[in-house]
Design a protein that fits this description.
This protein is α/β, with parallel strands linked by helices and about 450 residues long. The chain folds into 2 domains: about 300 residues, Rossmann fold, CATH 3.40.50.1100; about 120 residues, Rossmann fold (3-Layer(aba) Sandwich), CATH 3.40.50. About 45% of the residues lie in helices and about 15% in strands. α10 links the parallel β7 and β8. α4 crosses α12, α9 runs parallel beside α10 and α17 packs across α19. Bound molecules: pyridoxal-5'-phosphate. The site of pyridoxal-5'-phosphate has 20 residues, from α14.
Length: about 450
């Protein structure tokens, strides 16, 4: 609901204090460079989490590798690790350069979290990790498991009987529910997923087919989370996965950076003062991109630059960071409706901790329209035969709008984090693609830049 008075100030007073809010309220695509980014060492010194925390999470995931090999056959090729490929997309780079009449220095790469095993989105990192941590805690406490055991034993009736005495609950716009629901049900937990109005029908159907209780709400993400929290709070045997506040989720996402370091080494990608790494991360509530960005800064240091990408209608993180009011304000307070086709990013109020935590490390944020996400979805499919969901394209425009900060003697690697898409049903994907082609036609008619670039 749009308010006349937000935290004691009129909308006019807010606009006077933070002029960027006018563009956000007008739903204009907006770039924000972070004026409060700190020198790297200083920023790291302020962090409440450390490399040791990321390594602890990584070791836990490693302990579960034999469980995954046993319980999910698709994890066998990577020996039980949930990891995604990183590939170069040179033809997409040319498409972007042509459309926007601007050359992109360096390489354009994409990180295909869209193709993570089990749930086909970035949520297969944090979401699954939090449930594994819970399972391990319970099994250790009940004397069923030691840290030295082969965790394959968790894929047995005895453990499923143990976990069936416990419940897991979560609120979601879709993908987090999918991850938490699938892994919890497989381990044997009772699991309830509280879905916002954004959640696609096929995600709810899939979860119900796996025995997950799905609750549906006509409202947005914040309400789904609140309902999940309420449903869990009176039950000491129910663990609520708190996407708005969980450090565990965050650390699960951060592990991505340790793996990325190996992938860069394998592919001969150097990150140093002359070869900066610029990473573009679609942002919803902030845990996913925040965790990955934190990990990347810890692993690659000052030569990595991270940017968050949001839909123009759901710009909660940019709003929170630019004003420093973080989770105290929502986009709805300012009359922005939080309605977007990018269901993974349809969040109106940012995480309770991520914005404050990551701000000293972050280079900037920007927003992107639904039309542009659709266009890039079709362009990526045509040029590279890579099929993503709309949310996952938010990062793709980053090299065009934020990527020209480097000096002439540097060759950056632009890494677009493609956060989801592999599980989208084919008819839904075809409809996304057709919409993308239609948006491109409209865009071409409107944009002389495009016509000139085409010759
Ligand atoms: C959840 C999600 C994100 C963003 O993660 P947050 O933790 O909500 O910021 C990005 N892309 C997709 C496809 C997602 O499902």
């Amino acid at each position: 609901m749009e308010h006349d008075c937000i935290l004691g100030k009129s909308k006019g007073e807010w606009l006077a204090e933070f002029p960027i809010l006018q563009d956000l309220c007008d739903l204009k695509e907006t770039c924000w460079r972070n004026p409060d980014q700190l020198p790297y060492q200083q920023a790291v010194a302020q962090c409440a989490l450390t490399m040791a925390d990321i390594q602890d999470a990584s070791a836990r995931l490693q302990r579960f590798a034999s469980y995954f090999i046993s319980a999910f056959s698709e994890t066998r090729p990577l020996e039980g690790l949930l990891e995604s490929p990183m590939v170069e997309i040179p033809r997409m780079k040319t498409v972007l350069e042509t459309q926007y009449g601007k050359s992109i220095d360096g390489n354009l790469m994409v990180k295909l979290d869209s193709h993570l095993p089990i749930s086909g989105s970035i949520k297969a990192r944090g979401g699954i990790y939090e449930v594994l941590k819970l399972a391990e805690e319970i099994a250790l406490k009940e004397g069923y498991l030691t840290l030295e055991d082969d965790y394959q034993i968790l894929d047995t009736p005895r453990f499923r009987a143990l976990f069936s005495r416990y419940a897991v609950a979560v609120g979601s716009t879709g993908n987090l529910g999918l991850s938490i629901g699938i892994i919890s049900a497989k381990l044997g937990f009772k699991v309830a997923v509280h879905m916002s109005a954004d959640a696609r029908q096929w995600k709810k159907d899939l979860l119900r087919s796996k025995g997950v209780e799905v609750y549906e709400y006509a409202s947005d993400y914040s309400v789904a989370v609140k309902e999940g929290r309420i449903a869990a709070q009176d039950n000491p045997f129910c663990h609520f996965v708190d996407d708005e506040n969980s450090k565990t989720l965050f650390l699960g996402y951060a592990v991505a950076a340790l793996r990325l370091k190996n992938q860069c080494a394998e592919q001969g990608i150097v990150v140093d003062a002359y070869h900066p790494l610029c990473v573009y991360l679609p942002c919803g509530v902030g845990g996913g991109p925040g965790g990955v960005a934190f990990g990347i800064k810890m692993v690659f240091g000052a030569h990595a630059h991270c940017y968050f990408a949001e839909p123009t209608h759901s710009c909660c993180m940019l709003l929170g960071m630019a004003t420093d009011y973080h989770d105290q304000v929502s986009v709805q307070d300012f009359g922005i409706d939080n309605k977007t086709v990018a269901d993974g990013l349809a969040v109106g109020r940012a995480s309770g901790f991520v914005g404050r935590f990551i701000k000293p490390l972050l280079d900037g944020c920007y927003t992107v329209t639904d039309s542009r996400m659709y266009q890039m979805l079709a362009q990526l499919a045509d040029s590279q035969d890579i099929w993503l969901e709309p949310s996952a394209l938010a990062g793709m425009i980053g090299p065009v709008v934020m990527g020209d900060q480097e000096t002439a003697d540097t060759t950056p690697t632009h890494l677009v984090w493609a956060t989801g898409g592999n599980m989208v049903p084919q008819d839904t994907m075809e409809a996304y693609y057709r919409t993308g082609k239609a948006c491109l036609l409209v865009e071409r008619k409107q944009s002389t830049a495009w016509i000139f670039a085409q010759g």
